[in-house]
Amino acid sequence: MKVAVVGATGLVGSVMLKILAERNFPVTELIPVASEKSVGKEILFKGSKYTICSMADAIALKPEIALFSAGGTTSLEWAEKFADAGTYVIDNSSAWRMNPDKKLIVPEINADVISTNDFILANPNCSTIQMVMVLNPLHKKYKIKRIVVSTYQSVTGTGVKAVEQMENERKGIKGEMAYKYPIDKNVLPQIDSFLENSYTKEEMKMVNETRKIMRDNTIAITSTCVRIPTTGGHSESVNVEFENEFELEDVKEILSSTSGVVLQDDIKNFVYPMPLFADGEDEVFVGRVRRDESQAKSLNLWIVADNLRKGAATNAIQIAEYLVQNGFVK
What we know:
This protein is an alpha/beta fold.
């Protein structure tokens, strides 16, 4: 099993390597790929050293699976070339997510749509993944009419440069800026660029990707995405209106029994999800589950997950595991 990790030196790429090792994915030959300036350098994986190679060299090695986390431009240029060589590409960028010919996958929800001809599979946006993990089982039972979501997203979602900016600011050091404004002791109501409708790309990703993954274009969704000075994971305040009435205890029972979701909802003992506890975990945590008393058949939820793991690397590797387990690759 030859596995290429494209963007192996980046923040998500390094977590992909870590999770491949943690989950004992059947890698017989690792092919780390990075930018030209990194070619020839070495990385460590499961105690062995591997030399970073170029895109062209990686394609020539014909990996069975390529995990991409190198940005949309790189993916648009190279993903199809890997696919043409017979490699299953699992892409973490936004390049292919809304392409009608490409599948957008959260394995616990819609892995069943994958076919043998799907050589490019898209990994959803981190904030979308954690939200649909919680909402999909509720949608099956009660049918969602409308979602209002506000996110509180970690600087790790931007990358190493953003983490360094925050750390420099906390130390009083002037350095390279990932954001237009300081992030420490601040909140930035912008993630990605603004569109003509005054929403950001990140906000519209949550709208469009949620409908595609949950296979329901009738769901009304509005989103506000915010960057906050923290690491460890993304948090979301989610308000959901259903077609059908629900009992709060039934909702909690559904969430408690959903694979990959952990209910943390004991307010008497101050138990609720936080990035502090989600950091390094693969599950999606949900709490503050309560009825919206201002609107019929509506619910409020607080959802937290490690955006580098389930929000990116873990979800991609779960897709790869599905391909192996179901005989797509051998």
